[in-house]
């Protein structure tokens, strides 16, 4: 399954939703207490100014997605933090227009499509983030990159049913959230196929903005899905494309969003390399060009984001072949195939 553990851990979690959350919380507890709770963004998200909105969102999750709510309860217990703070942190992109979640995705459609993804996040989580191998008692298993303190489902993931999901942040403005976007991302990991996943996004994509690249071993389209604030745009791809975490085809997003310089530079550079025929992994590892780089390792990154992992997900009729790199390794630290 893997070559050698380097800067990216591997955590197994199984059982009920609460038990899974508990295991993920325990895995991330040290990093959360050492770094996250001392950060400015934590204070902004968990402070009293957001308390009323967090309570409203919590009630919505508890009513519509009780299993995800139980996972949040377990996560808080494992982290040894108050549940309202953990819920707030998992609503961060619904409460704030701009949070330190970046990412770049390369999408290559075809008979055996390929999706490559850089997971960019808070630099202090380098060495503390992990791949979660999750086996729920009442749903499909999956592999997902996990940040300490966060639910799976908003990074990159492969499920036992053959679903591939990669996620990019959209910094939409003037959002009035009704359901947290990370909760929807977690719910999508239980979907049996692309149509079910998109239906979840159509019905509940009423929080902050995300871009999902979705594919499935039984339906080998790649769907580029942008959603947020109650709007959604679904585009089946017919040509290679790149997404660098700002809205490209969601009208609600292109009309009212914040595009950082890094996001704009990565989009321009990535599209140029794609047009030149670069391989997806080479694009994702590129640190050149005139602007801010695609692969991000600078301590002075203006968005306070660094590349923490890179995934290459190859969808075939027999399953999903996946390889995962940590931030510094040209060779995969984990690789395998999900039937």
Automatic annotation (TrEMBL):
It holds the Pfam family AAT. It comes from the Bacteria. Gene3D superfamilies: Penicillin V Acylase, Chain A. GO terms for molecular function: transferase activity. Keywords: Transferase. Residues 113-320 form the Peptidase C45 hydrolase domain. NCBIfam families: C45_proenzyme. This is Acyl-coenzyme A:6-aminopenicillanic acid acyl-transferase. It comes from Caenispirillum bisanense.
């Amino acid at each position: 399954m893997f070559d050698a553990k380097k800067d990216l851990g591997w955590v197994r979690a199984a059982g009920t939703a609460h038990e899974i959350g508990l295991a993920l919380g325990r895995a991330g507890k040290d990093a959360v207490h050492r770094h996250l709770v001392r950060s400015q963004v934590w204070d902004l998200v968990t402070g009293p100014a957001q308390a009323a909105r967090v309570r409203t969102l919590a009630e919505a999750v508890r009513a519509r997605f009780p299993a995800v709510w139980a996972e949040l309860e377990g996560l808080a217990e494992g982290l040894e933090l108050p549940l309202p703070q953990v819920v707030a942190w998992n609503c961060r992109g619904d409460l704030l227009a701009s949070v330190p979640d970046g990412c770049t995705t390369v999408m290559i459609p075809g008979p055996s499509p390929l999706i490559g993804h850089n997971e960019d996040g808070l630099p202090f989580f380098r060495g503390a983030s992990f791949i979660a191998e999750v086996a729920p008692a009442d749903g499909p298993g999956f592999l997902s990159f996990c940040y300490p303190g966060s639910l799976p489902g908003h990074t990159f993931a492969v499920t036992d049913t053959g679903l591939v999901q990669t996620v990019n942040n959209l910094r939409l403005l003037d959002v009035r959230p009704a359901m947290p976007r990370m909760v929807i991302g977690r719910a999508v990991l239980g979907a049996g196929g692309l149509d079910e996943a998109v239906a979840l996004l159509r019905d509940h994509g009423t929080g902050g903005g995300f871009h999902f690249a979705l594919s499935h071993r039984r339906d080998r389209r790649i769907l580029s899905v942008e959603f947020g604030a109650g709007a959604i745009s679904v585009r089946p791809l017919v040509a290679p494309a790149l997404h660098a975490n700002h809205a490209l085809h969601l009208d609600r997003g292109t009309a009212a969003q914040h595009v950082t310089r890094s996001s704009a530079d990565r989009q321009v550079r990535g599209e140029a390399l794609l047009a030149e025929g670069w391989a997806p992994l080479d694009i994702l590892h590129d640190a050149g060009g005139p602007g801010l780089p695609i692969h991000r390792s600078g301590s002075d990154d203006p968005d306070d984001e660094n590349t923490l992992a890179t995934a290459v997900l190859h969808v075939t009729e027999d399953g999903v072949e996946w390889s995962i790199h940590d931030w510094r390794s040209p060779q995969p630290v984990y690789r395998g195939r999900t039937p």
